[in-house]
Structure formats: structure tokens, C-alpha cells
Amino acid sequence: MSKRAGIINILKPPGMTSFDVVGYVKKILQIRKCGHTGTLDPSAAGVLPVCINKATKVIPYLPEENKEYIAKIELGVSTDTLDADGKIINKDSLWKNLKDKEIIGAIKIFIGKIMQRPPIYSAVKKKGKKLYHYARNNESVDIKKRQVEIRSIDLIYIDLPFIKIKVNCSKGTYIRSLARDIGERLNTSAHLKDLLRTSSGPFKLKDTIRWDQISDDNLNNILIPVDQPFDYRALTVKDYAFKYAINGTKLLAKNFKKWPSDLKLGEKLLIYSKDQFISISEVKLNEDDILYIQALRVFYDGGSR
Fold it and tell me: Which residues are catalytic?
């Protein structure tokens, strides 16, 4: 059983749930603590970062605001889940009259900050229950729109009834909903045929490893250090202050080897000591208007590997 902590950037295959991938990692590495960052639908493939052992503590802090997907949309068919796994609820041939110019124009409308209605088959909560519970029990529910940001949509090709696009968007954006909405804009049915997540924050498709490459013997080659995904500034405490840092004690300028003059209130930092990553910390201000560093999460593991 490995006690090493870190992140594995896994290429999730279609047909497995994100939970299935986590279960597989637990079984292969014989570990108890394991969690993924950002669910992928069962039919989708692509980037799925999985944290193991004490690295699970980093999940709330991982930068995953930027997501990128390659999506294939099929026009003329809509499903109850908005993707190819769902039950067909409508078919039409209205897409046959569409021109490329109309399609390109419809896609561009969704670039920017938009209000989007999540799919009813999703984990978004309403009155304490996930939306898919309402769907499975045939209960009606009012699904409110949420603001998301679609930073760019690049058209890869049009081969009617299919459209392929690359989408860069914010966390919380549903590409299934985008497929539905593009269809509605074009006055035809639509659903998401295929989806590939190519990036989630700093984790990229080109750096993923297959699930069958995961083994205890291969951890040295595939495990990403907990601090690697962050682009926060790094500060190192003096050796005598090591015990303060690992206990999450407030740290002052005198405790550090170098103290930058341009630290900003609220700035996040990576704290190190004795060549070890200690914590994600934040710059704060005390009652005497003196800046200090407070640990948000300590990751020091006593030196275990």
C-alpha cells in the first residue's frame, strides 16, 4: 500500500464514470483516500485529475476555472439527457436547410458570459436533491439558469447533421446544455454526440496517462507533486521556523529567508521549508496593520514517501 501523496492526470475512457476511475485507482494502489477533481459524464473522455492519499486535501484549491473541450453535436435529434446516452425525445429534418453561415452565426452568439440552464440529468442541487433524482422519479422541477462564461468557440468542421467545435469555458459550464441551446438557436433538435475534455486548469490532455498505466511500481513516473499545479509565489521559512510552518502557526517577515516588499493582502502563497512543500497560505493583516502569513492548508506529511 503506497502512502505517497500526489496527483495522477488520467485519460478517462468513455463508458466509465469518474467514480469508477477513482475506485479503480484505489484498488490498484491499495489506498483508501482518493478523489477526482471535476466530474466527467460517463460517455465523455479526457482529462480527469485524481488525487491520492493526503493530496486529496488540495482538491478545493486546485485551479480549474479554465476548461477546454472538443464537442461533436448532432442536429436533428434531441434526447432527455442531452447526450447520446439518453432516450430520443424528438427528431426533425430542419437541419437540412441550414447554411454554414447560419451555423457559424448561431455559435458565436454563445461566446461571453451567458445564462445557461443545466441539464435535468445532472448533479446540480435543487432543494437539497440532485436534479437527476427528480428526472428519475418523473418529478417536475424548476431549473433556474446560471451564469457561465464561454471564452471561445472554435469551429473545427461542419458535416451536417454534425458540427464539431472546440470550447474554452468556465467551471460549471455544461457542454450538453450548449449543444441543446445551439440547436434551439438554429430551430432544430440537437444533442451532444461525443465529448473530449482536453484541459482542466493546468492539467492537459497531452500529459494524461491511461488507466492501465497506473501501478505502484510506476508511481515515480506518473505522480504529479501536490504543489506543481499552482502558479502562486513561493516563500521559504528559515530552518528554526520549520516547526511553526508545519503546525500552521502565523508566520511573520522575520520567519522567512526572503520577504518580498510587494506582497498583497489576500495573495495566495506556497510555503516551503528544508526543501519540502509545507502549505498553501494567504497574506493577512493583523490588528497592528502588519502583514503576516496564515496557512490555509498544511500538506507536510512527516516526510513519508
Answer: 41
CB 191 within 8 A of CB 82: yes
Query: Considering the entire predicted model, what is its pTM?
Result: 0.90
Mean pLDDT, all residues of the chain: 92
pLDDT digits (tens, 9 = 90+) for 51-77: 999 899 999 999 888 999 999 999 999
Nearest-angstrom CA–CA distance, 94 and 62: 43
Number of structural domains, the chain?
3
Report the alpha-carbon angle 205-208-209, nearest 5. Answer: 150
Q: Are residues 95 and 164 both part of a single domain?
A: yes
Residues 41 and 108 in one domain: no
For 210, the domain range is 6-64+202-222
All three cell numbers of 7:
496527483
Q: Is residue 77 part of a domain?
A: yes
Alpha helices in 88-159 (DSSP H): 100-108, 131-136
Cell readout for 41 is 459524464
Q: Are residues 16 and 60 in the same domain?
A: yes
Cα radius of gyration (the chain): 23
Residue 23's CATH number: 3.30.2350.10
Do 70 and 191 lie in one domain? The reply is yes
DSSP letter at 235 equals: E
Q: What are phi and psi of 129, to 5 degrees?
A: -120, 145
- Burial grade of 118 (CB within 10 A; 0-12, 13-18, 19 or more): buried
Q: Are the C-beta atoms of residues 293 and 271 closer than 8 Å to each other?
A: yes
